[in-house]
Amino acid sequence: MRKISLTGAAAGLILAFAGCSAETSSASADATAIPEGKAIVVYFSHTGENYSVGVITEGNTAKVAKVIAAKTGADIYEIKEAKPYPHSYDECIDVAKKELRDKARPEIAGTLPDLAGYQVVYLGYPNWWGDCPMIVYSFLEKSSIEGKTILPFCTHEGSGLGSTAKNLQKAFPGAKVEQNGLSLRGTTAQKDATATEQAVDKWLKQTGAVK
Predict the structure, then answer these.
(1) What pLDDT, in 10s, does the model give residues 31-44?
(2) Domains and CATH numbers, the chain
(3) Distance between CA 186 and CA 13 in Å, rounded?
(4) pLDDT, tens digit, for every residue of 178-209?
(5) Which residue would you say has higher pLDDT here, 17 or 98?
(6) Which of 90, 111, 118, 195 is the most buried (most CB within 10 A)?
(7) Percentage above 70 pLDDT, the chain
(8) How far apart are CA 209 and CA 34, in angstroms?
């Protein structure tokens, strides 16, 4: 695993607003096998006050991202916002809701990685109001993802993947977005390393990433 350290420390905020979904993985037996080739884990996560887990110094999504990178040997890159989201949970979800409504594209801190050499992108994020945080769209729109396979994974507190995978495929039709992504509760990611590892193992085997 090679860390592409361009943006600083990891972060994670889990918001539970959409309908119920699977506790761990949405993957099914007919999930698309990922292609051979170099892979990278790209994730956005938020620290501070989080739903159900209190104040944290390492984000829920960050914890899952690091397990995936360790299991697959993929490189890893954190999307870090130029203007930090509020520490307060209530304030942060208000900002996230406004960004979604405005279809905002928040600025990213640091230099983005060159995805030209990667065939597979594991894309991680918290489920914010049923969609990816808008900064994830900022990253994808600034990156070359045409022809790449994107495997989404998210953390949540009851919303599962929401509409995130479907929305990503619609927004980026030139990429193949796997619809059977991994969804893991933030409380599990934050407090139960064994269950997190088991969920990741199961998902990676179903996608064909590991044997």
Answers:
(1) 455 667 799 999 99
(2) 3-207 (3.40.50.360)
(3) 8
(4) 999 999 999 999 999 999 999 999 999 998 88
(5) 98
(6) 118
(7) 83
(8) 6
Determine the 3-state secondary structure of 29 from DSSP. coil
Which residues make Cβ contacts (< 8 Å) with residue 132, sequence separation at least 6?
A: 44, 125, 154, 164, 167, 168
Quick check: 10 and 78 in contact, CB under 8 A?
Answer: yes
CB under 8 A, 24+ apart: contacts of 166-171: 167/131, 167/132, 168/123, 168/132, 168/140, 171/137, 171/140
Quote the tokens at residue 143.
């990156």
Nearest to 4 by CA among 72, 77, 80: 77
- Report the mean per-residue pLDDT for the chain: 87
- The answer to whether the CB of 123 falls within 8 A of the CB of 171 is no
Dihedral sign, Cα of residue 162, residue 164, residue 170, residue 174: negative
Give the max Cα distance, the chain: 43
Give the start-end residues of each E strand in 51-173.
54-56, 75-79, 120-126, 149-156
Distance from C-alpha of 143 to C-alpha of 67, rounded to nearest angstrom: 24
Which residues are CB-neighbours of 131 under 8 A, at least 6 positions away?
A: 100, 162, 163, 164, 167
Q: Is the dihedral of CA 167, 173, 175, 179 positive or negative?
A: positive
- Candidates 44, 45, 43, 40; CA nearest to 73 is 40
Dist. CA 171–CA 165, nearest whole Å: 10
